[in-house]
Amino acid sequence: MALPTLGALQALPVRDHLDLLAAPVAAALRDWAHIDEVAVVAIDPDLADTAALSAAYDLPMSTGANCVVVSGRRAGEERVAACVVRADTRADVNNLVKRTLDVRKCSFLPMERATEESGMEYGGITPAGLPRAWRVLVDPRVADIDVAVLGSGLRRSKLLVPGHLVAALPGAETVEGLALES
Which residues form a coiled coil (predicted)? Predict the structure, then answer.
């Protein structure tokens, strides 16, 4: 299979460059059946934010797949989810995500907690390798991206993943209407 490429980003096979991934991401992808269809690109950590990366490499925002971590409570039980949406949309946290998690109120997980529990850096959190207790909700529009740019768990690199494979990540659930237009 051909390695996914996008614009001027220098795609490298993930299998040969696991050192460019956060440890939990490397562990999750190492034995994934689709590892040979995923590339990693080294980037300047100052370009880890989607808008900066898109501007620096002349990439459409629609190629980015952002992952935000949210939580809520019901009957004293905390429910955490990572929501993966195209970068030109935003997760419907206050309505659809709240209903999907069946919680009274849903809010973003504090940065320190998200990074500590995921083992990933802020600005690099990705749906691969997250704690098993966290749900991974994916907007179906992500599957329509030819090559999606995702975090790698580190700010110094990004993953290039065919969009349809994002929804095929272990534990991923496709949720219609997860994202709203920005």
Answer: none
